[in-house]
Design a protein that fits this description.
This protein has about 70 residues and is mostly helical. The chain contains three helices and no strands. The radius of gyration is 14 Å and the shape is elongated.
């Protein structure tokens, strides 16, 4: 379960950085790297979304500040 949390956390960070770049510079790293494979781009976005749900659902249990 810890590995799932680590992967989900990494994907949430990647997704957040990508959206920050889209917002600031209109530059989408995921589309740039995987643009020739639209199904892979969609898969990355789905994985980032699922990761956000997993991190959000497990946040209270995993966060030392919030679980006090």
């Amino acid at each position: 379960m810890k590995m799932l949390h680590i992967v989900a956390f990494a994907l949430v960070i990647i997704g957040g950085l990508n959206w920050g770049l889209v917002g600031l510079f209109n530059y989408n790293v995921v589309s740039t790297v995987l643009g020739s494979w639209p199904m892979a781009v969609q898969a990355v976005y789905v994985l980032v979304g699922v990761s956000a749900v997993l991190i959000g659902a497990a946040h209270m249990k995993d966060c030392k500040l919030c679980s006090k």
